[in-house]
């Protein structure tokens, strides 16, 4: 009986810790050549639809209302979930703090 309780407890602890698996980690990058990828900022959007419709990394004044924040290239981005061609990320940097929102998958670059 004691072994069963111990086993059930162990399974419960492991099941609770399972969601703590590390997420995918990337750096944000702007589309285009090397110069654009280094100097252009990247928009992090409030909705997946706004991110999909963004033709450039930041957007224009019409779409600015859907902009969550603007991040510098090289900002660390942790992918929380993916939705088709966009990803919901937590973008964080020591300089600007951080924000959560959607970016196009093409704006993610492996370390």
Kindly state the mean pLDDT as a whole number?
A: 78
- Count of extended strands: 7
Total helices: the number is 3
Q: What is the second-level CATH architecture?
A: Roll
CA-based shape: globular
Distance between the termini: 50 Å
The CATH class, by name, is Mainly Beta
- Reported by name, the CATH topology is SH3 type barrels
Task: Give an overview of the whole structure.
Residues 1-22 form the signal peptide. This is Succinate dehydrogenase. It comes from Rhizobium rhizogenes (Agrobacterium rhizogenes). With 111 residues, the protein is an alpha+beta fold. The protein has a single domain (22-109), classed as SH3 type barrels, CATH 2.30.30. The chain is built from three helices and seven strands; from the N terminus they run H-E-H-E-H-E-E-E-E-E. It has helices spanning 2-17, 34-39, 48-53, and strands at 24-28, 42-45, 67-71, 76-83, 86-93, 97-104, 108-109. The strands form two sheets. Strands 6-5-4-1-7 form a five-stranded antiparallel beta sheet. A two-stranded antiparallel sheet has the order 2-3. Residues 17-21 have low confidence and may be disordered.
């Amino acid at each position: 009986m004691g072994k069963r309780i111990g086993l059930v407890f162990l399974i419960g602890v492991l099941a609770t810790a399972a969601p703590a698996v590390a997420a995918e980690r990337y750096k944000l990058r702007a589309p285009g050549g090397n110069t654009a990828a280094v100097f252009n900022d990247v928009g992090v959007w409030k909705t997946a639809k706004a991110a999909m419709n963004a033709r450039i990394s930041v957007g224009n004044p019409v779409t600015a209302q859907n902009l969550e924040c603007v991040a510098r290239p090289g900002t660390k981005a942790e992918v929380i979930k993916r939705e088709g061609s966009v990803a919901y990320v937590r973008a964080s940097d020591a300089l600007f703090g951080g924000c959560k929102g959607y970016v196009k998958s093409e704006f993610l670059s492996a370390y």
